[in-house]
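ARCHIVE CARD
Drawer: 12
Card no.: 0347
Subject: one protein chain, sequence and derived structure
Cross-reference: see card 0346
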Amino acid sequence: MGGIIILISSLLPILLWAQLTLEILLLILITLFFALLGFIDDYLKLKTNHYRGLSAKTKILIQFIVTLVSMSILKLYSAEGFTKTSLFKGVIIDFGYLYVPFAAFVIVGSANAVNLTDGLDGLAATQVITSFAFLGLIAYITQADMNITLFCIAFIGAILSFLWFNTHPAKIFMGDVGSLSVGAALGLTSVLIKREMLFAVIGIIFVIETLSVIIQISYFKYTKFKYGEGKRVFLMAPIHHHFEKKGWSENVIVMKLWIISIICSVFTITFLL
């Protein structure tokens, strides 16, 4: 329910006030596609016996196929230099033919990272607001595309309204509809403004949450294979649940991680842009 509210309240003003350029249309379509995929996953969890929804492999495969096709189409209609991206302080790298799969990886990775982060009341929402705010600011400062800045502002407004009811104890939730679509929108935004690497710093909490899951699963499988018994690095993954097990309250975890993301974002704008 929360995800649908976010999409309606963000995409409607975008359709009304933003210029429907190829980039904005792609942002809208990718956002809606990931929302649809999230809806199917949520539906399977709630209405059928598939309590886990779509398998992780199936979801990621579908996501990669769609984003690869989308990025390939965008490349065809983009100006020369599409395969170049900015690392920091004017350092440019040209990925060449690898840029399309790289961009797809950023979008899919972002979508699933937000999905993993959406485990505590207000956690994903606060992180997403920060990321959209600073990506939108970068788009404005670099004059990449003012429509992208408007896109970010629309999502900030929508998610702020959502956050009012998502703070602990939450009354509404993002669900896969919200987390996957918003995450994909963030990833694609960073691709369009050519700041994918800076997004990794701005969205540092998304990176940490994802790495904690990868480390936990990998170490468990390794120790089970080697010693016959799986061991864990964290008490629970993603890492916000580790802090819960340590006795931290939800509000403390959310606020401290939000502070970290704001500090990293300010650092990015100040020293890396």
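Annotation on reverse: The longest strand covers residues 84-86. The two ends are 37 Å apart (CA to CA).
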